[in-house]
Design goal:
alpha+beta, Immunoglobulin-like, 3-stranded antiparallel beta sheet, Neutral Protease, domain 2, 9 helices, single chain, 27% helix
């Protein structure tokens, strides 16, 4: 059976010279949610424009006079299909055998912020003795995404290289990064709609006087959307209760790339997320209490209109960071803890299993947890069970951000090393919260030594650890890998 559909209204709107906005990207063709399908798309458009779509380009049928045509077929079943159209300049890079192409226009949308004018020195028109520069008011040149397209392509290729090592091979043959007006970016199979902000060079960011935190987050957008090629496009979320997985994981993937390049900025972003979750509204309500990540879009309310982004993206990012760190630190005390991502960490072994088992399928939160349970070291078995139910119940399905304290600590010399005993308190937290807390010792030489993980259960938990000779005190989570309040 072949069905025909007629649509009314504008799908495209003009935002600037050569730059169009593709509206209703998910509803311009019949669909039923995230149900992967094969797509065969053909477009006709003006001859001096460039169209990029999901799938692989193949020969088109005859063109209408004055128009050109392009034909795109998906390489396999995909959850969404779309296109972007503009007067683009193209730049290319390679990530192994994967072609990465960036498409930017000569300028940005008309509504884009303008760089403020500044007083600058202007040399005299006719240099000579006694002639000196004058001060004039001048604005920096406007941003040019086309001028920065090569840097965008290179950045995308580097991200694919890292993600392929950590998560498994890139699932398609190419990736197109296309400029789109506005703040929003989206990553669809093989096609990224990328905000004009992501095409800004560092100098253009400075010229616009972007807030440093906004500039840093804008720099992560391209990598975040590239990560969606694995999390969201290849592995799908099952329901609104599971959508946090793909957003939190794409966001954390972008941070992992940042960690390789600039560990200090990696920490800065995580601390911003912690601060956001600890913010209050005018009614003195905590944003962190809006609900767990599994509420999805239901987190949005008049009390906290931005709760979905803060909880799903930011708390979701923290949950993956906690999971990664506790698996890594508990696997073996001899493994290096440089903090840099390594493909043989148990966290990445788990993610590769998720990719292999759920490619083209819908993933539930419980199924994600079950995969990581396979990587769970003995030291993280709670009540002698190889289970992460405690992490699912208290952290994924909860809103806790405890305040951690160590007290009644006793250090006793032994024949070899010392014995350390004490109590860990979790304050401002549910009575049944279980948290894997890394404990470090400070030696007489002022070096920091990892002693082990303590599964703190409820308000107070006694612990006993062995430590090297000369250990004089302990500290809880000095590398700040637990989503606590730090107070």
């Amino acid at each position: 059976m072949k069905l025909g559909f007629t649509y009314a209204g504008e799908v495209l709107s003009e935002a600037g010279t050569g730059l169009l906005y593709v509206g209703e990207r998910g509803t311009w063709y019949p669909n039923f949610g995230l149900s992967p399908a094969l797509f065969d798309l053909e477009f006709q458009y003006p001859a001096n424009w460039t169209l990029v779509a999901t799938g692989k380009q193949s020969p088109a049928t005859a063109e209408t006079p004055g128009m050109q045509a392009s034909h795109w077929t998906s390489e396999g079943p995909i959850p969404v299909a779309g296109f972007n159209l503009g007067k683009y300049i193209r730049a290319e890079a390679k990530a192994g055998n994967v072609l990465v192409a960036a498409y930017g226009t000569a300028g940005v949308e008309r509504s884009f912020p303008k760089a403020p004018a500044e007083m600058v020195h202007q040399p005299p028109a006719f240099p000579g003795p006694g002639r000196s520069p004058t001060m004039v008011l001048a604005a920096p040149p406007p941003p040019s995404p086309a001028r920065n397209a090569q840097a965008v392509a290179d950045k995308g290729a580097r991200a694919i290289g890292s993600f392929s090592q950590w998560f498994g091979p890139y699932p398609l043959g190419s990736l197109s990064l296309t400029q789109m007006p506005g703040d929003l970016s989206q990553g669809w199979p093989g096609l990224v709609f990328l905000s004009s902000y992501a095409f800004l060079s560092p100098q253009e960011q400075d010229d616009l006087r972007l807030d440093p935190s906004r500039a840093l987050l804008s720099n992560l957008v391209l990598v975040h959307e590239t990560a969606h090629q694995w999390w969201g496009d290849l592995v799908l979320w099952n329901s609104y209760r599971d959508q946090w997985i793909v957003e939190g994981l794409a966001n954390y993937s972008a941070l992992l790339v940042l960690e390789q390049q600039n560990p200090a900025q990696f920490r800065q972003v995580l601390e911003k997320y912690r601060s956001d979750l600890l913010s209050k509204n005018k009614d003195d309500e905590w944003l962190r209490d809006s609900g767990p990540v599994t509420l999805g879009q239901r987190l949005i309310s008049s009390h906290f209109p931005g709760a979905y982004e803060a909880i799903s993206y930011e708390r979701g990012t923290w949950l993956f960071h906690m999971l990664r760190c506790m698996l890594r630190d508990s696997e073996t005390a001899s493994r290096s803890r440089s903090g840099r991502a390594h493909p043989e960490e148990p966290f990445f072994r788990g993610l590769r299993k998720v990719r292999d088992r759920y490619a083209g399928k819908n993933l539930r939160t419980q199924e994600l947890v079950q995969v990581f349970e396979e990587e769970l070291p003995r030291s993280l078995w709670f009540e002698n069970r190889r289970s992460l139910d405690w992490f699912l119940d208290g952290w994924i399905n909860g809103t806790a951000m405890p305040r951690l304290e160590a007290r009644d600590v006793r250090i006793t010399p032994k024949e070899r090393g010392v014995s350390i005993a004490g109590v860990i308190a979790q304050k401002d937290a549910p009575d049944d919260l279980v948290t894997a807390i890394p404990v470090y010792g400070i030696t007489a030489a002022n070096s920091t030594v990892f002693l082990g993980q303590v599964l703190a259960d409820g308000p107070e938990t006694s612990f006993h650890l062995n430590a090297p000779a000369g250990t004089r005190k302990i500290v809880l989570d000095p590398r700040q890998t637990v989503l606590s309040t730090l107070k």
